[in-house]
Structure formats: C-alpha cells, structure tokens
Specification:
The protein is α/β, with parallel strands linked by helices. It is 51% helix and 16% strand. Strands 9-20-19-18-17-10-16-11-13-12 form a 10-stranded mixed β-sheet, sandwiched between helices. Strand 7 (241-247), helix 10 and strand 8 (279-284) form a beta-alpha-beta unit. Helix 4 (101-108) packs antiparallel against helix 17. It is globular.
C-alpha cells in the first residue's frame, strides 16, 4: 500500500503551499512517484503551480524529470461517476425495501449534501487501488470539514448497514413471523464494505498526518482543538509531524516583525508542550508568494533545513494607494453574511461589524458562526455555545456557534418519535405494527450524514430570521465557513426545494398513510420557508454579503472565483474587505515587510481595476490579534476605502 500523508490545519495557514512543496521535494530529491490530491472544494493547486489541472490526475510540468501527478478532485463528477457505475444495483436493493424505484431514482439524480467529502473518500480509494504511486499526499480542506472526511468511513459503514437491512427485508420478516426464507448477502454491499475498510485503514491507522500551523494564537488554539477531536475518532490516529509556517526567526527594528518574532517563539513553546516528541519543522516567512519554481527550494528549506534566498527576484512595481478614511459599515439589513477563504479574517471582520453596529446604532445584533471550526469564543474571550447568549457584557449583542451534531440529534429524536407513533397504531380497530419500516428508519437516524452542516446552517439562519430580537434590531449576522463550503451552503436552499418537490411527489403515492400525510405537511411547510429565504438572500435590499480577503496572490484568485460564483447564484457582493494591509509607516526600513507591501500594492492595483463598482475597504494590519472589547474598539476605530 502506498504511504498516505495528509496535511491538515486551519484555513489560511498554508496547507496548499506546504503540501505542494513537500510533494516536489519527495518526487525530485527522493525519486518517489507521488500523487498530490486536493480535497478542498475551493482548490488552489492549479494557482500555486501555475498549470491548468483537470478532474483526473495530471503530470506536473515543474517536475519534468520526476513522477509527480496532481489531482484537483471535481466532487460532482467524481461522485456522479461512482453513482452511475452502481445505480442499478443500488436501486434494486432499495426497491426490495419500503421504497419504490419511482421514489428513489429522482432523488439519486439530484445533487447530494456532503458531496465534497464523499468524492474525496472515493478519490482516495481510487488512488490507493491504482497501485501507481509510492506516496499519496492530500491537501485537505480547512480543519472543520477535514474532520468530516475522517469520520466518513464510519458513516459509510452505517449506511451500508442500512442497505444490508433494506436488501434483507423478506428474510427478516420471514424470521420474525416464523418463515424460513434465506437471502444471500448482496455483492454490492460486500464490495463497498471492502472499499470502505481499505480507506478506513489507510486514513485512520496507517496515514501520516502533518499539522500545519502559524504563530497566531487563533490558529494554535484551533490546531489544539482539532487534534483532540482527531484523536477521538480512532485510538491509533495521531500526528506524525508539525510544520510551523510563516515563522519570523529574527527580530529586526520593525514593530510588525518584532511582534511576529515574539509570537513565533511563543508558538514553538506551545507546540512542544502540546505535542511532545513530535517532529517540528519550521518554515520561515518569505514576505512574498511561494509559487511555481520557488516551491522546490521552499520544500528543501522546510524539510531538509536548507537556507533560502528570500529576496531573489524583485517584487512587482506598483503605485502608492490612494485611500480615504471612512467609518465601518453599520448593519442595516435583516441578513448579513461574511464570506472568504479560510484564514483571511472573516470572523474578525464579522465580530467587528457587529460590535461597530452596537457602538453606533440603537440596534440589537445576533451573530452566528456556521463554520464547523468556529472561533467567535476566541474573539469575544468567552464561551460561545449553540444557543445565542450575550457577549462583551451587552444583552443586545448575542453570539452563537452552530453545533450541527447537537441540532441533528434533537431533530432525529423528534422524527423517531413521530415514526414510532405512526408505525405502531390502531387502524380501524386493527393493530398495525410496521416493524420493518420502523427498524429501517431508526437505523437511518443513527448515522450523521455528510453535508449535515450546510443543511442545518440554512435552517439555523431561517430560525434566527424568524425569531427577532427586541426592536429596533439590525438583523442577523452570519460568520460563514471557508469559501468552498460557504458556497455549498448557499446552493443548499435550491437543492432543498428540489428534494421537497420530489419527496412530496413520492409521498402522494402513500397519502392513505397518516405518516405520509404528516410528513407531507412538514415538507410543504419547509419548502415555503426555504422559498422565502431565497427571496431574502437574493434581495440586496434585505441581505448584504461582504467578502474578506488578504492582499496576496492565492486569496485574490479565490476571491475572484467566489464573487463569480455568488453572481451565478444571483447574490450581489456589497463590498470587499482587504485585511492585514501594511501601510508605509508600518514598514519603515524592514526588508521583509517592504517586500510584502510591494506584493500587496500589486494585488490591490488589480483589485481596483477588476472591481471598480464594488467598494474596497482596506483594513490595516495590526501587530497583535484582535480579541476582547478593548482590541475590537481599537480595530473598528480605523478603516480606509480604496479610491
């Protein structure tokens, strides 16, 4: 079996850069045949290598004399190909249960929730089965969704139990009521079990896991929480190594670099205490993008300890910024959403928008994070739970972080009770016990399906919109998940409408059953609520959407794709916040910061030309992270707009 290596970490810590550099280092310096695979729905391997990549593995031109293939998994194509191969067998299993082909086939044609994670699992399975590579490396999605990938083999196993139960209907009923019918095991279920077991062993037993972190406190705290959750999934699951990325190893006469040097020292101590006896690699901050041919030198620097000439090659020339000082926006719509790539400061900007509104307007604010790896509690320096509660001592500033698992279990309990009542009843004085149906639904509700976050996040937003705070109010502020999964969330309402129409059509065939009538009423009500939500989402008079980015090459390209995808969804972008911008007086004579600033100016020049009608807000770089009321007050005291 090839060696499987996964690079995990908070969004924005540099997983893509580090994994790409490691793949080049192993293939070129160690002559290994390598496949680098991205499971992040917001791919950027193509950007970082400067080469178009398809939905199948493609040889990397940069490694002409080595064997390095790169694969950006297209979730929909990957999952559809798998489903089409097995569709007839799957339908035959489900037809043997309480469902008909007419019920199931239309649902299989729709876009499934959690497709990104399921496609990633299938891609890993295909790569392992190919036996073409010595090493397979995975550039993962931000940590919240990567944890879902690790949990997916267990979900698949549970789903296969459901399929096995469905395919054994006649045998189980015969056994229960005294028959002797025997059924052979379904070959498709056995085939899938073998696949799942191979991937489970590769992921949860044999995989090497490299944690990528930066010296920022938020990134370190999230890393610590993520590793704890990771270890809870499997006794043998643990880290192989840690990469402390974007480290500043010297302390020049620069306020920014001195603060980052101090943070780097503290981070090294934190990582050694939290993860003793683990290999710790240090990667120095370049002050410039690491892309294309520079990746190999960067890989040698990180993984072989070689020095690297950071200042080779001049940064692009760019004009000085023309800025106008402005006030932070005040929330003035029922719904505000903040989107962006992982690690760009979405949560900081979200918290600041809410805090500024509380300072300057007589309006209540309800902020909710739907990111599976939230950090509102870090910013507000208090525990933030699934239920809205006041923060910063302000009863009209409430925060919550969605706990998808808790919401699902509460919902599942209610559904299970409804099914129990409906399948054990008196009908015309005749006792009816739909034993098999109850067993099948109960087993389905025991598993937590992938894609749950997106569905429940939509329902949470609906719930917040329907439960107003005391008036006057500003509405609801949503701190979204990183780009790929945020777009999945915004596509989910349309998907829910498709499912509701198909389910209502299927239930119409069973309208003589009380359960079908009750379920139909709930589904019709959900469909109406989701249609109302779509009306709010697409109406710029009721919803504002802000994008957050860093003035760097990779976030720039991802933000361009994000705004294009939002436009396809008929959602307009109200403004773009460009975070952590270095000003001239911040840089002084520091070579690293001067180099960084030149690259920032070049990026900002492109933004100004590309988004002329869209307001571009410039958020100055702060040497220290924003946490607590005092820091937030200082943060919202300064904002600039690119003229």
């Amino acid at each position: 079996m090839p060696q499987l290596t996964l690079f995990i970490g908070k969004g924005g810590v540099g997983k893509t850069t580090v994994s790409a550099a490691y793949a080049l280092h192993r293939s070129v310096r160690h002559k290994a045949s390598v496949l680098l695979l991205s499971t992040d729905p917001a791919h950027s391997l193509s950007d970082i290598f400067g080469q178009p990549l398809g939905a199948q593995p493609r040889k990397l031109r940069l490694a002409a004399k080595a064997r390095l293939d790169v694969w950006q998994v297209n979730a929909e194509k990957q999952f559809r190909a798998f489903l089409n191969r097995h569709k007839e067998n799957l339908l035959s299993i489900l037809e043997a249960s309480i469902f008909s082909r007419a019920d199931i086939e239309p649902l299989l044609e729709t876009t499934m929730p959690g497709m990104s994670e399921m496609a990633a699992l299938l891609a890993i399975s295909d790569a392992l089965a190919s036996a073409e590579y010595d090493e397979i490396m995975i550039d993962t999605a931000p940590i919240g969704h990567t944890l879902r990938l690790f949990a997916l083999p267990q979900y698949f196993s549970t789903f296969l139990d459901v399929l096995e139960l469905a395919s054994s209907r006649d045998r189980l009923l015969a056994e229960r009521f005294g028959g002797s019918l025997k059924a052979s095991a379904n070959p498709l279920v056995g085939q899938w079990r073998s696949m799942v077991e191979a991937v489970r062993a590769a992921l949860l037993v044999h995989a090497r896991i490299f944690l990528v972190a930066t010296p920022e406190k938020f990134a370190l705290e999230e890393s610590r929480r993520a590793v704890r959750l990771l270890r809870s999934l499997s006794p043998g699951l643990d880290l192989a190594a840690i990469i402390l990325n974007k480290a500043v190893l010297s302390s020049p006469h620069c306020t920014t670099c001195r603060a980052r040097h101090s943070a780097t020292r503290a981070a090294r101590g934190f990582l050694r205490r939290q993860f003793p006896n683990k290999q710790l690699y240090i990667s120095e901050d370049a002050g410039a993008p690491i892309m294309g041919p520079r990746l190999l030198a960067f890989g040698d620097h990180v993984f072989a300890g070689k020095r690297i000439a950071w200042n080779s090659g001049p940064p692009p020339k760019a004009p000085e910024l023309r800025l106008a000082r402005v006030n932070w926006p005040i929330l003035d719509r029922p719904l505000t959403m903040v989107l962006g790539k992982g690690g760009v400061g979405k949560t900081t900007v979200s918290a600041s928008l809410g805090f500024n509104t509380r300072l300057r307007a007589e309006a209540a604010v309800d902020i909710c994070s739907v990111d599976p790896a939230p950090s509102l509690d870090d910013i507000f320096q208090t525990d933030v739970s699934d239920q809205p509660r006041p923060v910063l001592g302000d009863s009209q500033f409430r925060a919550s972080e969605m706990d998808a698992l808790a919401v699902f279990r509460t919902w599942a309990r209610g559904i299970r009770q409804m099914i129990d009542e409906a399948t054990t009843a008196e009908v015309s004085a005749v006792h009816v016990d739909l034993w098999f149906e109850r067993q099948l639904f109960t087993q389905l509700l025991e598993s937590v399906p992938p894609g749950l976050d997106e569905i429940l996040a939509v329902l949470r937003v609906l719930d917040l919109l329907q439960k107003p705070l005391q008036k006057p109010r500003s509405g609801v502020l949503i701190d979204m998940a990183p780009t790929g999964h945020a777009l999945d969330l915004l596509r989910t309402p349309e998907r829910i409408l498709v499912w509701t129409r198909l389910l209502l059509k299927s239930l119409a065939h069973h309208r003589t059953l009380a359960l079908a009538r009750d379920a139909g009423a709930k589904i019709a009500e959900l469909g109406k609520t989701v249609r109302d939500f779509l009306d709010v989402l697409r109406n710029s008079g009721r919803t504002r959407v802000y994008a957050v980015m860093l003035p760097e090459a990779l976030p720039d390209r991802q933000t361009e794709r994000l705004i294009a995808e939002l436009a396809k969804l008929r959602i307009s972008t109200a403004a773009i916040f460009v975070n952590r911008v270095l000003f001239k007086e911040d840089v002084r004579r520091c070579r690293r910061c001067s180099r960084t600033r030149q690259w920032q100016l070049a990026t900002l020049g492109k933004l100004s030309a590309r988004y002329a009608p869209v307001p571009l807000y410039i958020v100055r770089n702060f040497a220290h992270e924003i946490a607590g009321e005092k820091a937030l007050r200082r943060f919202v005291g300064e904002l600039w707009r690119l003229a």
